Design the sequence.
């Protein structure tokens, strides 16, 4: 059975660059596939130079196929988290709307009070008679 460079690196637990250096140095014999352009390494030749890996990471040992990682189903957890985030966004939007409403009400109250104060000042100044004030001098001598 002939391995490709990737399969051979998995079978012996070495990197592809290590295998390429061994091929170029002449320690490991391999043939070049003319169609695909990849290296083909015979299994016995590979294990003559490199010992087989006891545990090949990422491979299913029963059939040599790449193993898919088993992941627990986290769908309910993620859906609950999405629901929490949506609730937080709703609360935030409600708070923002409430604060805007309060700000608008306070601005309207401020305008109303300003108008009342302005009108009162005009009314008071028109009804009061002007009282002449004597100017005080800064220097007491020479009054």
Sequence:
């Amino acid at each position: 059975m002939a391995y490709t460079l990737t399969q051979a690196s998995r079978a012996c637990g070495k990197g592809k660059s290590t295998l390429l250096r061994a091929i170029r140095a002449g320690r490991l014999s391999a043939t070049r596939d003319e169609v695909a352009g990849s290296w083909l390494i015979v299994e016995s030749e590979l294990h003559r130079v490199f010992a087989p890996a006891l545990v090949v990471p990422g491979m299913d040992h029963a059939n040599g196929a790449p193993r898919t990682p088993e992941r627990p189903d986290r769908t309910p957890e993620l859906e609950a988290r999405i629901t929490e985030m949506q609730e937080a966004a709703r609360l935030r939007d409600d708070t923002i709307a409430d604060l805007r409403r309060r700000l608008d009400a306070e601005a309207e109250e401020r305008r109303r009070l300003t108008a009342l104060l302005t009108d009162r000042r005009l009314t008071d100044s028109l009804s009061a008679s002007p009282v002449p004030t004597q100017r005080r001098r800064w220097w007491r001598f020479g009054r």
